[in-house]
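[Meeting: bench + compute handoff]

Bench side (C.D.) handed over the final construct sequence. Compute side (W.E.) agreed to return the predicted structure before the next meeting so the bench team could plan truncations. Sequence as handed over:
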Amino acid sequence: MKRLFTYYLLIVCCAFTAHAQYQLPNSGFEEWEDVSYSSYTGKEPVGWNSFLTGSGTLKSTAGRNQLEIMSESRPGSTGSKSAKLFARKVLFSIFAQGNLTTGCINMGSVTATDANGNYNYTEIGEGKNNQTFTGLPDAMRIWVKYNSTNTEYPYGKVSTILHTEGYYQDPMGNTSKITAQLVGTATKADITSQEDWQELTIPFVYEATTERPAYALVSFSSNATPGQGKDGDYMMVDDLEYLYYSELASLSYNGTEIFNTEKTNYNIDAFYEEDKLAYTSNGKGATVTRSYNESTGLLTLTVKGDDWSNTNLNQHVYTLQFKPFTGEISSISYNGTPIEGFAQGTNHYYTVTGEYTKGCLTATPQDEGANVQYDYDAATRIATISIPESGKDICYYVKFAEEVNAYSSKLVIGMAGGFLSAPVQEVGITDEKEGTVNLQLRNFFLEELGLIGDIFVYDVAITADGNISKTDNITIFGEMGAELGVLPLELTGKISQGNLSAQLNISWNTLPITVDVYPLSTTSVDLTDMNCEAAQIEQAKQGLTNPNCIIYTDEGTAVAEDTENVVVGTSCTKLNLNKIYDISIPYAFTATEASLARSFATGWHSICLPFATTPETLGAEQTQAFTAFDGNTLTFEKVTAMEANVPYLIYFAKETENISLQNIDAAVTVPQSVTHGNVTFTGNYEASRSMEGLYGVAEKDGAQYIMRGGAGSTLGSTGAYFTVSGSEVNFLQLRLDGIETSISGVQTGQDGQAFDIYTLSGIKVRSQAATTDGLPKGIYLINGKKHIVK
């Protein structure tokens, strides 16, 4: 609100300073200076003006000093001087009160009136020593010593007026040219006589304005009522100070007042919510800052007075201890079922299998009453769970994995040319859709770093024959995966006959990480360039289901003497092969010792081996190679040496098991086919190859035949089979070189099949049989089913 101040003085205000001023200079009246005017010469406090300073009628009429320097100061003061102002008679019975002010008299010269009869000021003189002031004090403190013999007007007066820039109304009652806006006042006009010094603390009363003051008009008067002073009235003043309060005046939480003037520390049994806290300060210009420690729940309120600075630490500190928010989740459920493996506060990444729907996740906050927020990103299939009101950057993430076809796999994980681990894990592949599949490798673990997280690779290209490939940048879903950041990935592999083989090449800060995925029935594992130790080789073997699996290691790798099927460089100490498992040799090597676990009953058999040998070495009577077919007769010729990967018919005169050999050269397994006419004889390294529609050596009714297999008939590895192109064969003759064959020829027909026969204890009694005739009475296993011979 703007007001016109009806004072005697017309103050011309000085330019506003950019620096805040919170106390008036020379407020202890220690510094004085000589002043001289037309009818007055004397001393004044520096920065202050007496009533008669300047020009004007009253000054020339009074002609006498109403201010003097005193060597007396109030008790306890650090100074030695004070100012004494006293009343003087100026005209007849008119007394001018003693006065000291920050302003000065400067009335100007009235020369004429304007057309409306108002005075026209032609001179607005410059003011002297006006005090710039920008503080918002809460009280004025001043020491006074007052004496008055005036019984009718027995009061002295002190006052501070804070205002914005402008002029006051002139004493003639004319409207001033420029008006100032009142900001606040501190006035005491009833100071009574006392023999001793009085300490006066006078509160400021502020107007309803947001303006800060630009100036302070301070005045001390020996008489509160102008013109009513008496001889002997005087007032001594010393040590003017403005007080700035820096305390709380009220404090409430959630509508309940908790403030106590004697307390600065409070305990509140609730979680901190900013909008529920309310407070006020007792300082007009005081500021209150908040500082909340989320981890401890401690809120600090610092109240700083308006005059606070780095050197004047006028402040009070209050603490409010709230229940600390942890921001943690104590449980998460998916469709009402708790998420498996949830660990509060230690893991924030979880994967579930299924689809996200609104409300499918239920999280229980550790902080009772806290509100849980759920967000879902359909692109990444990740839901984020958080408690925003905790103020903590704590999030839980739930990944919604797709349904997959699970492939039990052996993983061989290496980093920068070193072996890390070889766990048995499932690798998931989604059904093919528009030429792509998605791959999942959950719980990916690195030996040195621990659990990294779950690997998800989307939109992996797949060909008609099962080859898969993808080049991508991925972020592994997990605590450590988030720290590793975005990782380049190259994925290649193949899905065939229910098995998955793949390789993931990952780059972490140019550090290569390799993940080789083998089916558990794999026939070989490549550990070369991984600097493996014996224990790591054994770790790579664990969980594999094919005892024929060959482990390749670097030259110079130390292995135990009795280690089987481990190739060091190009040498293997012991090679053991079993016909009931697949055999595959991707790289040639030599074996000091070799054995083949295969039973040969007396008679003819088909055979194909991954190394060169002789019938004699195998303990056989003879071996015959397929040499011709004239459209009616299959012709074989006896050979004394057997080549690797070539199919033969072999004859054992007696039952033979578990063939042992020395110093063999194992060749890369590429089964050879021998074709004459429309008949092809092919070697086989596949366990339990289906013989339906193929021809092989089988027994029926005590005789051996080249027989066409039916549904359910199989051939073990290291055997061989015939195929006939064109129309179905009804009759073929068989000619073997140099002997009368006991093979009765070729029997055809849809019902023909060969099978192995076992006792209930697992002992094989016939191989590739076509009948149970001639077996002792009992129960036998044929193709996994019980069969009774009566």
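W.E. noted at the follow-up: The chain has five domains: 32-243, 248-323, 329-401, 405-567, 589-789. C.D. will use this when planning the next construct.
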